[in-house]
Amino acid sequence: MEAASYLGAMLFWVIAAVLTLGASLAVLLPLARQAEGEADTSHDLEVYRDQLTELDKDAARGLIAPSEAEQARAEIARRIIKLDAESGSKAKSASPLAPRLVGVVAVLAIPVLTWSIYTAIGSPDVPSQPLKARLEQKPADSSVDELIARAEAHLIANPSDGRGWDVLAPIYQRMGRADDAVTAYRNAIRLEGSTAARQSGLGEAIAGVSGGIVTSEASVAFEAALKLEPANPKARYFLGLALAQEGKVAEAAIAWRQLAESLPADSPWRSVAEQAVAQAEAPGAPANQAAGAPGPNQSDIDAAASMSSGDRTAMIEGMVATLDEKLRQNPRDPEGWLRLVRSYQVLGKTELAQEALGRAYEALGRDSEDGRKLTELAGSLGLKVTE
Amino acid sequence: MVEMGHFALVLALVLSLVQSLVPLYGAYKGDAKLMAVGGPVTVTGFAMIALSFAVLTLAYVQSDFSLVNVWENSHSLKPMIYKFTGTWGNHEGSMLLWVMILSFFGALVAAFGSNLPATLRANVLAVQGWIGTAFLLFILITSNPFTRLIPAPIEGKDLNPILQDIGLAVHPPLLYLGYVGFSVCFSFAVAALIEGRIDAAWARWVRPWTLAAWVFLTGGIAMGSYWAYYELGWGGFWFWDPVENASFMPWLAGTALLHSAIVMEKRSALKIWTLLLAILTFSLSLLGTFLVRSGVLTSVHAFASDPSRGVFILGILTVFIGGSLALFALRASSLTAGGIFHPISREGALVLNNLFLTTATATVLIGTLYPLVVEALFGEKISVGEPFFNLTFGPLMMPLLVLVPFGPLLAWKRGDVAAVAQRLMFAFGAALLVVLVTFLFIDGASVFAALGAGLATWLVLGALTDLALKAGIGNVAPKVALRRFLGLPRSVFGTALAHLGLGLTLLGIVGVLSFEKEAILVMKPGQVLEIASHRLRFEGLQPVRGPNFTEDQGRFSLLGPAGQPVAEIVSAKRFYPVRQMPTTEAGIKTLWLSQLYISLGDEANDGAVVVRVWWKPLVTLIWGGTLVMMAGGFVSLMDRRLRVGAPAKRKSADKKPSPVAT
Amino acid sequence: MTRKQKRLSVIAGALAFLGAATALTFYALGQKASYFYMPADLQAATLEPGQRIRLGGLVENGTIVRGQGTEVAFGVTDSEETVKVRYTGLLPDLFREGQGVITEGSFGSDGVFVADSVLAKHDENYMPKEVADSLKEKGVWQESAQ
Questions:
Q1: Which residues share a beta bridge with B556?
Q2: B146 touching A, CB under 8 A?
Q3: Is the domain of B610 the same as that of B498?
Q4: Which of A318, B94, B311, B314 is most buried (most C-beta within 10 Å)?
Q5: Partner residue facing B370 (CB), from C17, C29, C69
């Protein structure tokens, strides 16, 4: 790669030099050549002579009357005579020094100006990056984006490659591209069959799309996973989360406790579940952790698993704050508002939830469809809907 | 090698600078060698810009998103043809196309101008060089298409879907060939002013360039009009939009120039006026470029507005228009005035044509600039649209169109109107008949429609009368007449075709404006609509997936007399996900000269959809007529006497004849 | 007539023609130019009944009501005032709630603006210029960083 780019840069400078040389020659050659002079009036004479023949033709064809033709002929003749009188009045004065100097300056200006301007504004070291070549280079040289694009290109060409979808799905999920993850999991399930891992992954992706809320659609996927593998920890954890988000914190705690007890000590899910239980049972904290903004992806969960409960709350609050900030900048996001109001309430911050609700009404309008959804949610969360 | 394009562009700028100064100085000093530099430098400069453009095109074709310009305006899934045309479907790329065409014309002058007087040639190339330098600076400073983006994104932001159409392949290049073609006339005019004399060779040269530019501009405007007609989904062919006016003004002035150049070439009269028109026409092209590219107007053409660009182009505009007009004021008096003529003569008719056309140009100019001026001065926002132009442009054009058939029939120097009128009796009688028949026998025809149809007939038959008279049809034996007809100079055919095309376009406009039928309704699948005695059945909506869009196709069947489907018309609503943009793809069925035009609206319940259907009688004539006009210009250009440069030199058998002159 | 008189009469004719054309142009500008208003500007404006104007602003959220066939009603707002607009026909592709539009027409006797043309933006980067300028003045709309 190093060598190739070095060669590429060399090639660039070589071609640039050749082009510059060619351009300089375009100035130099005419200066070196012996120029031939020609009387200026010869061109006019040609034109007038041509007009005469044209006139004769028109007259022969009967387009103009003979008398008119005669008149016109006389007029052209007058012009030719006038022309003769004008010619010869010019003398050429050649003062050789100044023009030669101008020629030399012009020839030199081409390389000097071009190279100084180009080096100031150009990026000679940056090679071309045609998309196809980028997708074909060695995987080690590619960025993650390029690798994903490559896989996508492959899947566009072979959309029935189930294994491709299977590989890509969790990568999408980790990249935060929940929408694409849902599609990929669905394709993998369709083509390769349903497994607990795919179903629970699909559920997680769906939850990711709706911002961490375990929707009924996500629950269906998790339940399908449990049917295939009753012990699947991801599915059990998220179904617990679904209970918590519905406000059934006690039932959620039971589910998580059962999950934690059934798992070996070294399972990452065990500590996740244990901490969820601790959080749920903590006095004054009726909420659970994961209701917050962008759905916890695998790395978040891994990170959360190794945190203290305080750190984890901080992390979740951070996520919610990010969402809040985003909505301040771009308030036109009904889904986001629903999520934010719910998250604050779930975190036990009723005042903030109330305030977020107010802002949401302001942004979306109380009477719009989205406004009604907000009102519904506020009612179910026990928030005041001020008129 | 993307950077090669950037380097070549810088090289072109420096070459253009040399082209601006060295030949000019050479002409001033009378130094043949310095003057001779102009040609090779111009041609090399064109080669560099062409290389640069080719590199940019390759970057588009290969989806090289390390260029900001490609990233912003392309997408890897875009169909190949639009990757290609997308090169100029954005501000930076279209400006590069602009200068490439400019330098192309310069190169043509350099290549075929070997028989021009040396000083004239040198000065013309220098003036071309000034324009090129100004616009290359503009590109490199404010609109560089070679700005890099590191690290390169993996996917682009896609081209505005409205531009993803075959129209983009044709409309801008044709339009620019027209706009920029007038730069040659401008350079000739300024060169003549610098030299302080206009010779016969000058007139010979200016006319073919005007003709060529005019042919391209006509095509560009017509193509733009047809594109807007089918792509925007409202079925309108001309909106008096400021951007359209920006291209229409140089066309009107160019048409005037075309006519005054005839007088100048044939009669050595109107020299100073022709020179002024040449300057004005290109000034209007520059003004058009400014209006469209600066962002003072918003439209589909204003890709992105950036104040620095507007100021820069305004600067170019001021320098070139102001400078050339100042030069004109200083030097015009030193030019010798030409021959005299009687007001009633071919020359007189052409002057009248110029009077009308330039006044019409001024009207369009005022209507276009007035809102800008009012906003700048009083902060009030107003818009000047169709009603204004109908009231001003219309009355100015009507008398001109009535007079058109007289012009070619009048004799030079002193004509006889009564004799010409007598010769046009047949055309007049036929036009009158058309007026009466239209008014009495076609339902819903207004007086205005009848007169319009009559005027169109008058133009068409007037043009044919001109040909018939010149061939002597009716006066001499058919065989002789045929031989004469075939032997007519091509410029006579050119004139007749151009005027005939004008009549056809007018007929199309009258047809659509007066006899159009329209229906807006909600259609359920299976429902039949009757419009202008055509029966259309809606077959239903069907989702279809395109390469970078999805669409709902509405299928319609055109029913024959027995109720059987005879043709299918597909109209669609498209959605381009990358830009989150819907577009309407009108369904158009051409039935002889008329069209059925269907555009889809929103979907209602149970598969029903809002449908707008137009019957557009004779609509294709609008663009068909412009094609005939272009053919006229082209035929005229082929006339031996008009060919670039002097006629074949009998005396110099040793010299290679220039390729165009043979 | 002498040659001089002839020339003078030709020049006088041309000048008369130009004068007439100029007069016509300025008469037409006075009669046919339509003014652009935002809803809040309307109170200060004196409109003659039936006078054609261009009304611009944002399509207010939740105000689009589709009637029979292709009838549609919506509110155009500049966040201070809202004007009810009625229109029959196909709406432009990019007509959406919260987006800038320019409508052209005149006020009906019931105080509803009857539009005969509705223009929306051409692509997602573009806001009708008049609307964008006026909204910026009012501080309602900022150009989003692209």
A1: B538, B569
A2: yes
A3: no
A4: B94
A5: C29
Contact A26 B59 (CB under 8 A): no
B555 with B453, same domain?
no
**Which residues of chain A lie closer than 8 angstroms to C61, CB-CB?**
364-365, 368
| Any domain includes B452 | yes
Closest chain B CA to residue A23: B44
B318 and B465 co-located in one domain:
no
Report the gap between the CA of A368 and the closest CA in chain C (Å).
5
Q: What residues of C form the annotated binding site?
A: 122, 126
Token pair of A190, please? 């369709």
| Partner-chain contact C122 B391, CB within 8 Å | no
Residue A270 per-residue DSSP state = H
What is the least distance, in Å, from the CA of A27 to any CA of chain B?
Answer: 6
Residue C49, preceding bond cis, omega within 30 degrees? no
Q: Which residues of B touch A20 (CB under 8 A)?
A: 11
Q: Any residues with CB less than 8 A from the CB of B386 and at least 6 apart, and which?
A: B239, B240
Q: Between A357 and B357, whose confidence is greater?
A: B357
ipTM: 0.84
- Mutual orientation of helices A309-329 and A334-346 as an angle, nearest 10°? 150
User: Could B520 and C124 be called an inter-chain contact, meaning their C-beta atoms sit closer than 8 Å?
Assistant: no
Q: Enumerate the known binding-site residues of C for heme.
A: 122, 126
- Return the residue in C11, C93, C104 with the most chain B beta carbons within 10 A, the one to mutate for interface testing: C93
Mutate which of B1, B2, B3 to disrupt the A interface (most A C-beta within 10 Å)?
B3
**What would be the CATH architecture of the domain defined by A141-308?**
Alpha Horseshoe (1.25)
Contact B8, B54 (CB under 8 A): no
Helix (H) or strand (E) holding B367: helix B346-378
Chain A CB contacts of B140 below 8 Å? 117, 121
Please state which of the four CATH numbers 3.40.50.720, 1.20.120.140, 3.30.2350.10, 2.40.50.140 is assigned to the domain occupying C35-137. Answer: 2.40.50.140
Which range among A138-152, A248-262, B102-116, B248-262 has the greatest average pLDDT?
Answer: B248-262
CA distance A38 to chain C (A): 42
Strand-strand pairing, C113-120 and C82-88? parallel
Q: Is residue B641 part of a domain?
A: no
Q: Are A292 and A347 in contact (CB under 8 A)?
A: yes
**Residue B4 burial (CB count, 10 A):** 21
Please tell me the predicted confidence (pLDDT) of residue C40: 81
Q: How many domains is chain B partitioned into structurally?
A: 3
- What range defines the domain where residue B18 resides? 2-330+342-396
CATH of the domain at B523: 2.60.98
Nearest CA-CA partner of B357 in B276, B249, B269, B461: B249
pLDDT digits (tens, 9 = 90+) for C32-72: 888 888 888 887 777 777 788 888 888 888 888 877 767 88
Residues B414 and B362 in one domain: no
Could you read off the pLDDT of B183-205 as tens digits, one per residue? 999 999 999 999 888 877 787 78
**Is the same domain home to B207 and B312?**
yes
* B490 and B602 share one domain: no
Co-location of B170 and B268 in the same domain? yes
